[in-house]
Specification:
InterPro entries: LMBD1_LysCbl_Transport (IPR050854), LMBR1-like_membr_prot (IPR006876)
Strand content: 5-15%
Number of domains: 3
Main location: membrane
Number of helices: 18
Strand order of the largest sheet: 1-2
Distance between the termini: 59 Å
Organism: Chaetorhynchus papuensis (pygmy drongo)
Keywords: Cobalamin, Cobalt, Coiled coil, Lysosome, Membrane, Transmembrane, Transmembrane helix, Transport
Subcellular location: Lysosome membrane
Largest sheet: 2 strands, antiparallel
Helix content: 55-70%
Shape: globular
Length: 544
């Protein structure tokens, strides 16, 4: 009976997983094809981008699965299910753990080998005469540097000490250390965990830069909308007339045979480039004004406003929850030396209160946690799309619909891979108790002495055994593999803690900036001075 129940649950899980995988692959294909340049698209770079984006989304979906499995092994009354004995529970935990390590190994392969190689290959292809062997050799030479970094991280992780200096001898902290010892018995897995944690720190920086800004920019852009295409076209026509008049005034200076001064020649060149850009804008605005997509967007404008208000409420809810969770760690954790780790919650936050309420109606809590994960991914995409890809103060690439270079798409997918690694810790910060134990409960037998008077007036005492249901317990509940993985190294946990404060600060700054900015142009980022006239044909595909 136990085997039949387990097989049925396993089959259902695999069916849902297959359906989710199909949806993810379709979304990744549509997303990459939507933004890639038609003139510069390459098969290998397209496949790489789709695969990397799919790995990022599948990895982010593993957190709800982990929480569901540890919760599914217990009944609502706090007892383990019949089939969930010690061996089966251990097998399920190991399966989830191996799933994490498999996906994280693929991420390491993508970040340190595949994506760098494809990137440098196409960089060399643009500047070479078409010699494939030379391009492959040069790409391998640059990729070797990334492989060296990965090897160094693996070696450090294999020998890094896991003993955490403990200044406060607390019972809870000793329990956590025992979990670490059980989880970190293999040096090979420890090396992989250290490498992934190192990438997670980089993902934290990317989340602070892109996700925090995207959480404020995306909803406010939906609320404010874009300027009217007809109004922009009218303004653009006036600008064209003004530039043409300025050009005629400068050219009139050389009608009598006199040469133009160097200053006038520079001004003339700048005005001609400006005129070409304005005429491209004119063609794009005309296409947008006549397109059915623009009319459809105008029709659903009220719905966009509703979604924008909803997203900004969700963003504020996340920020308040993150602030209260970090404040709880600052007040009640063992401090920096323990990575600011705490068990349970002392200061509750709105999200941590909402999830236990939704647990009463299956599967609302899993839908919410999945929605939160996807929200972080899509706001990260919005942040990268609005800001572009930067290296400190240098802007490397822009993400534009139908005109994004293959190298920019590879960068975008690599950044998303790194952000996904940090997403699990962000969710833990928002709802620490739920991420640790899911919906598990446990029973405690409590004995009461009941006193009463009988008919003769004599006092009568009896013992009453009562079972009280508590939400979680470290000894009697199964901890998710996500939690153990996140807190394997205390110094990384400390870095994540300070990163959360930076995330809150950047979100608030981005919110103020987004509120002060006006409406976006209907062709925001679609027409630039360095575009060629051939690029007009690429964008017109989306409006006809």
């Amino acid at each position: 009976a136990k085997m039949a129940a387990a097989a049925s649950d396993l089959l259902t899980g695999w069916c849902l997983f297959g359906l989710a995988l199909l949806v993810i692959l379709i979304f990744c294909w549509v997303y990459v094809r939507k933004y890639q340049s038609r003139r510069e698209s390459e098969v290998v770079s397209t496949i790489t981008a789709i695969f990397a984006l799919a790995v990022a989304l599948i990895t982010s979906a593993l957190l709800p699965v982990d929480i569901f499995l540890v919760s599914y092994m217990k009944n609502q009354n706090g007892t383990f299910k019949v089939w969930a004995d010690a061996n089966v529970s251990r097998q399920i935990e190991d399966t989830v753990l191996y799933g994490y390590y498999t996906l994280y190994s693929i991420i390491l392969f993508c970040v340190f080998l595949w994506i760098p190689f494809v990137y440098f290959y196409y960089e060399e292809k643009e500047g070479d005469d078409g010699n494939t062997c030379s391009q492959v050799k040069t790409a391998l030479k640059y990729t070797l540097g990334f492989i060296t970094i990965c090897a160094v991280l693996l070696l450090i992780g294999a020998f890094v000490p896991l003993d955490i200096p403990n200044k406060k001898n607390s019972t809870e902290w000793e329990k956590v250390k025992l979990l670490f010892e059980e989880f970190g018995s293999s040096h090979g897995l420890t090396a992989l965990s250290f490498s992934i944690s190192s990438l997670t720190v980089i993902g934290m920086l990317a989340a602070i830069t892109y996700t925090a800004y995207g959480m404020s920019a995306l909803p406010l852009n939906l609320i404010k909308g874009t300027t009217s295409a007809s109004y922009e076209r009218l303004e653009n026509t006036e600008d064209i007339e003004e530039v043409e008049q300025h050009l005629l005034r400068i050219k009139s200076k050389c009608r009598d045979g006199r040469p133009l001064s160097s200053r006038d020649r520079r001004t003339l060149q700048q005005l001609e480039e400006r005129l070409r850009t304005l005429r491209r804008r004119e063609r794009h605005l005309e296409s947008i004004e006549k397109s059915w997509w623009t009319k459809f967007c105008e029709a659903i404008r009220p719905l966009k406003i509703v979604w924008g208000v909803f997203f900004i409420i969700v963003a504020l809810l996340f920020t308040v929850s993150l602030f209260l969770s970090n404040l709880d760690k600052a007040l009640h954790s063992a401090g920096f030396d323990s990575g600011f780790i705490i068990l349970g919650t002392n200061l509750t936050n709105p999200l941590n209160m909402l999830l236990p309420v939704l647990q009463r109606v299956f599967p609302l809590d899993y839908i919410l946690i999945t929605t939160i994960v996807m929200y972080f991914i899509f706001t990260s995409m919005a942040g990268i799309r609005n800001m572009g890809i930067w290296f400190f103060w240098i802007r490397l690439y822009k993400i534009r619909r139908g005109k994004t270079r293959p190298q920019a798409l590879l960068f975008l997918c690599m950044i998303l891979l790194l952000i996904v690694l940090h997403t699990s810790y962000m969710i833990y910060s928002l709802a620490p108790q739920y991420v640790m134990y899911g919906s598990q409960k446990y029973l405690v037998q409590v004995r009461f002495i009941v006193a009463a008077y009988n008919q003769l007036g004599n006092i009568f005492r009896s013992l009453l055994d009562v079972s009280i249901l508590f939400p979680f317990n470290l000894d009697q509940c199964i901890v998710t593999r996500t939690y153990l993985f996140l807190h394997k190294f205390w110094f990384f946990s400390a870095a994540y803690y300070f990163g959360n404060w930076a995330f809150i600060a950047v979100f608030l700054i981005g919110l103020v900036v987004s509120c002060c900015k006006g409406k976006k142009s209907v062709i925001e980022g679609e027409v630039d001075d360095d575009d060629s006239d051939m690029s007009d044909d690429e964008l017109s595909v989306y409006y006809h």
